[in-house]
Amino acid sequence: MRLASVSIDLDNKWSYMKTRGDGRWTEYQSYLETVVPRVLGMLKERGMRITFFIVGQDAALPENQRVLRRITEAGHEVANHSFHHEPWLHLYTEAQLREEIERAEQAIEAATGERPLGFRGPGYSHSPLLLDLLSRRGYEYDGSTFPTFLGPLARLYYFMSSGISRGERKQRDLLFGSWRNGLLPLKPYMLKGTAHPMVEIPVTTMPVVRIPIQPSYVLYLSKYSEAVARAYFLSGLALCRWTGVEPSLLLHPLDFLGCDDSLPELKFFPAMDLPARRKLEFTGWMLDRLAQTHQVVPMRDHARGAKIRQQSGAELRRSADSPNSVRGVE
To answer: What is the pTM of this model?
Structure first.
């Protein structure tokens, strides 16, 4: 059975508010005490282990550390999602990147007891400088690429639903990536140009058409027709099988929260007008369908499997230069 990985970007309430330009984000409002138990409960029911990308700022706050420790106690992997959760890491200097990564590492390890070996940039933000730094710090994989042509449309929707200034929009000008991201590989590949070998695991989009199959998008579609949403997701999995793509499915906290969870600040997010129970049931169905045809593992295990195959020369082949100037093999 082929491998598949599942991860969740554990973006907290304040981080959504910050990216949207809501000045109240400095209060560090949190829903982790609600989200984490819901996610862990769903995974326990299915005997599934996944990867949690944790924001360092959350791990540094004492009030969050008990619930974050439950993640590793349940046998899941934790990974680095930056410290400040700013989706413009491509604008950071080397010194800023080093501080960002190190602070997040230290906070996550202190809170969970596990040092992260994987990274994903907020809003899929990354750069060759960042990837080289991660490799020198012993990271095994990065998961910051989102191979879709729809990034600019998602960014436009985000801007239109927010009150951020022109300067703030400039900072976020690569949020969700550019149209060129649609040319990136779908399969895991070894990064070139880094100090040490490291695997890139793209967030899977539907092969051929490169449209998102993340649960957040499918849940939004389910508002209009559950039957169409189910068929859409199953079509994505079928295309992955036919093209030999091992899926890496990305969850978000708002896949586990609904309109009945009293989160008016997040009502702009697609599908936040659905009740939590309906979203939980649909998200669980998607995980079940994935597990029927794939062995679901944390991203660390997915990366190690891809690396072994590359070293044996079995599956990975050289890809064209990527738009971010880091060469890889698909």
So the answer is: 0.88
Nearest CA-CA partner of 213 in 242, 251, 180: 251
pLDDT per position as a tens digit, 207-235: 999 999 999 999 999 999 999 999 999 99
Task: Determine the Cα–Cα distance for residues 250 and 144; give it in Å rounded to an integer.
Answer: 11
- Domain 3-204+248-253+296-311 sits in which CATH superfamily? Glycoside hydrolase/deacetylase (3.20.20.370)
Residue bearing tokens 């990136």: 184
pLDDT in tens, 277-316: 999 999 999 999 999 999 999 999 999 998 887 766 644 4
Torsion region of 221: left, alpha or beta (phi above 0 gives left; psi -120 to 50 gives alpha): alpha
∠ CA 81-247-130, rounded to 5°: 30
Helix axes 276-293, 32-46, angle to 10 degrees: 40
